[in-house]
């Protein structure tokens, strides 16, 4: 017969054991009910997995990324100007505090940043500002390689007018004509201003470097970002266009920051551009795809499955780049002005063919004809608009060429020659004096 051990068989040993077991169960039940050892409490707070800043004259963007949606509140404080961001259930980590080191002295709107614990469960992030701003704060759901994002877009109270900025830059060379070597009290004659070009009409070309900021665009196997290549080519093309006495170029973006597709078009319209050229570096699922392409808008669907695929990818840029969609349509609203789209598309095809012919001397052509698809960035009804895919960044050989300054110059020169050829056969109409050379 089985016999219990001696320690448990006596009345004196059994009572203490029962008391100990009862106390242990009671203690654990109380502890869990109080929330002291709940699984949620045992875990640490959420973390910021990435923190980025994208300063630009248009606006400064600050992005905080995490694995879960962030709970936050925002407050504007004055004297001095500050933007306060309170984050709930977030740990103070090096990723978050390290954002302060990314804020440079050249940021137009943010002076500095500091992080501290405001109260239990709340971290306070304070952005010291250089001037009063108009913030837009919104969240973005996970997309592509990004997790949940909290976006702070800091706009100036009075956004810079693209037309006034453009006219100021036109005027600058004449003001700089005064001899800087002459002192304030010197009577030395100033250098005469450059002779005004003998042209009656200034041709304005809007250049749109694709992607930027949060949206890197396509990525080559060697780590080349499309946004970097497109900006480099656009800057070279602008410099070449500006050498012409009757032509000037305007960049939709001049740095590494993102602009919504609609804003790019609106900038071109604001400066009354005669042509809009969006510059990209193509990518495809198969690495052997190669060659340059030119696209125009289509009202009746894409001319090929590849063109449709590319248009859908480019139109999704706002999802990756990050756009505040509250109260706005995702794409440009179509109005009665769209009655002129037929004329716009016809002119765009003429410009596209001229540019494509020149690109054929620099690179293979992916397609011999200008293709068409519903690109959102080409929907300005009053401006002929083309999208140039300079090469396939997904092709290892073409990626190497895109990284080359020499190739970038060749591409810029080819696009420039195509633009000149187009305007030689299709001179722009006259317009009011504000668009003439000062």
Give descriptors for this structure.
six-stranded mixed β-sheet; Immunoglobulin-like; 2 domains; Aminopeptidase; disordered N terminus; alpha/beta; disordered C terminus; single chain; four-stranded antiparallel β-sheet; 438 residues; globular
What would you say this structure looks like, in words?
- The chain is of the alpha/beta class and 438 residues long.
- It has 2 domains: 48-156, Immunoglobulin-like (Sandwich); 162-176 and 198-435, Aminopeptidase.
- Helix content is 33%, strand content 22%.
- The chain contains 13 helices and 14 strands.
- It has helices at residues 6-9, 11-33, 39-42, 94-97, 99-102, 162-175, 226-242, 261-270, 305-315, 317-321, 341-359, 396-403, 405-425, and strands at 48-54, 60-66, 72-77, 82-88, 110-119, 122-129, 133-140, 148-156, 203-209, 247-251, 275-282, 293-297, 371-373, 385-392.
- It has a 6-stranded mixed sheet, sandwiched between helices.
- Helix 7 packs across helix 13 (405-425).
- It starts with 5 loop residues before the first helix and ends in a 13-residue tail after the last helix.
